[in-house]
Amino acid sequence: MANSSSFDPFTQSFTLHMADGTPFNVSIPDLDSFMLYNIQISINYSAQLGASFLLLVVLLLLTKNEKRRSPIFVINSLSLFLNTARNILQCLYFTGPFSETYAYFAQDYSRVPRSAYATSVAGTVLIFLLLVCVELSLILQTRVVCTTIRQLYRRGIFALSFLIALVAVAFRLALCVENSEYIVSLTYLVPLTWLGSAANITTSISVFWFCAVFVTKLGLAIRQRRKLGLRRFGPMQIIFIMGCQTLVIPAIFSILQYTTSIPSMDSNVLTLVSIFLPLSSIWASSSGVDHAPATARQDRQQNHFDGLTGSARPLVNYKASSGPLSPSNTATTCTSSSMPSPANPRQQAMYLDLEAQGLEERQDRTMSGAVVP
Fold first, then answer.
1. Angle at alpha carbon of residue 152, lines to 148 and 154, rounded to 5°
2. CA distance 242 to 73
3. Which listed residue, of 7, 22, 110, 263, carries a Cα 20 to 30 Å from 278's Cα?
4. Spatial separation of the C-alpha atoms in residues 129 and 367, rounded to whole Å
5. pLDDT tens figures, 185-200
6. Are 318 and 332 in contact (CB under 8 A)?
7. Contact 245, 276 (CB under 8 A)
8. CB 320 within 8 A of CB 328
9. Separation CA 124–CA 179 (nearest Å)
10. Percentages helix, strand, coil for the chain, rounded to the nearest 5?
11. 3-state class of 23 per DSSP?
């Protein structure tokens, strides 16, 4: 009875044999942990796969033809495609021969086909390519919003941004190389734990930096517009909200990697950024369609986000059949008391700031703020 009462059936073990007949024991808790890990991480990657593929389809369906050639659209679409392919390969790994029970516990991968090795290496490479696309998208959008600030500040921000992105890409590249060599040789050449942690931290810092610059500049622009009487909720506010979201939520998942037992939480960082960037464009574009402006003041508020969504529409149109200074053009110049004259230096700076987000350098604006017909 004593032996029976001390026996715990949930912790018992069973014996397996290697190819040469050598026995080894596997406990039920170890088997449960192995199965639970594979289930949890497969759910994680499957959720990322579904979200990325769904948004990629929505982005391709809702984006207008004239916006499909913009650099931001191409990079965002490529990021979603790479993330979808990356998560497919990750799911194949955790449901493939590398994750079979005997192969895992006996560390015997002799029956793993070469295609499984290629799948694992390809998944590692796709993570690196995805990070490159995300960094390019963040750099491009930071360049857009910082075009009109002072040259000294702009160069400093660009230099620091490039350095931060380069460090993140370098750590990810090193991890990609070492991880690929480990997959092929099935031996640890160097401890990868610190390298994976460094890649995760530098990636999170990079995302935080770019989004902080992006949100700060948009916040200042929104504040300036409110002083000019433009208080309507529009695309700029939408992009600001999505920027704040991209600033906070990926950082939370990066921190959860070190505070929770759920595996591979840091993999959600790149997925969230690659989803939030095109999602902001879709939301801002749909807001512009639903609220078509009836005046030039509303039109200026509608078009400031075109650079971030890939459109090349002019920001302000002062043209009229009788000339830019004709009385018949008063509706388009909008000289009401709530809207200062284009000659106002503050308003001129705001126009240039918004116009710079169209990814085109406008050469037809005079010093007075009018557009030459």
1. 45
2. 17
3. 263
4. 44
5. 887 666 778 888 899 9
6. yes
7. yes
8. yes
9. 7
10. 70, 5, 25
11. strand
The label of the residue with tokens 């560390």 reads: 107
Q: What's the rounded Cα separation, in Å, for the pair 222 and 228?
A: 10
Which among 93, 148, 106, 80 is positioned nearest to 20, based on CA atoms? 106
Residue whose tokens read 């039109």:
299
- The pLDDT tens digits for 10-31 are 889 999 999 888 999 999 999 9
pLDDT tens for each residue of 84-141: 999 999 999 999 999 999 999 998 999 999 999 999 999 999 999 999 999 998 888 8
Classify residue 124 by burial, with Cβ atoms within 10 Å: 0-12, 13-18, 19+.
buried
Q: Is 50 exceeded by the pLDDT of residue 334? A: no
Place of tokens 């790149």: 270
Residue 357 and residue 360: Cα distance in Å, rounded? 8
Residue 300: closest CA among 276, 277, 334: 334
By CB atoms closer than 10 A (0-12, 13-18, 19+), residue 86 is buried
CA dist 171 and 197 (Å) reads 10
| Distance from the Cα of residue 78 to its chain's centroid | 11
Nearest CA to 220 out of 152, 313, 149 is that of 149
Q: What pTM does this model have?
A: 0.74
Nearest 5°: CA angle at 105, between 99 and 106?
A: 110
Cβ–Cβ under 8 Å, residues 215 and 246: no
Residue with more model confidence, 90 or 312: 90
70 three-class SS: coil
Q: Which two tokens stand for residue 369?
A: 């703020």
Residue 282's contacts (CB-CB under 8 Å, 6 or more residues apart) are: 58, 59, 62, 63
Q: What is the pLDDT of residues 47-86, one digit of tens each?
A: 999 999 999 999 999 888 888 888 888 999 999 999 999 9
